[in-house]
Amino acid sequence: MNGNVAIASNLIQHTPKSVVNVAILGAESTGKTTLCRDLASHFGSPWVSEYMRTYLQTKWDNEQLTCTWEDLLPIAQGQIDLENKLAEQAAKTDHNHYLFCDTSLFELMVYANWYYGDCPKALTHAALAHHYDLILLTHVDVPWVADDLRDSPHQRDEISAYFENQLTRHQKPFHRIGGDRDERVQQVIEWLAEMANISSVK
Hints:
Elements: E1 20-25, H1 32-43, E2 47-48, H2 51-63, H3 72-91, E3 98-101, H4 105-116, H5 121-129, E4 134-138, H6 156-169, E5 175-177, H7 181-200
């Protein structure tokens, strides 16, 4: 992405330098929220929920309507506002300055392109500008759990491959994460320890 592209002020990511932020991305019902919660519990750190679910669940409950193009930017706004708020909180913790994000604007951009074949430019610019110290892409190795919002039980592998394609295309380094709950948490603990060791010798 061209570094000269201006990012809309309301979508700028504000992560204090002391905070190590982790984004967990992937297809529906692949354990992203569970992993976020487990990591936050292990480290005693805050985690950022998926604002899109709250927004769309309210829309569904009130109007029986699903996501439209016009919802994308309000969802992006709500997501980054929540992330920025919790990043400040993470910086004030007494020990580990970690922030675990159950999605990011990059994921919202990927889904916009998947469903609509396009994405609002402001969202694309912000999604590509945002930085995460560790990006995880969940394997499709947990059972599908249906709810009001999920609609692609048979496309999880295809969507997961599309995520991988987009991360690679936009030069966003990432790790695949799979296994049971304990295995996933242990793997992330090891990756974070490796990152801390590398940082300490620089």
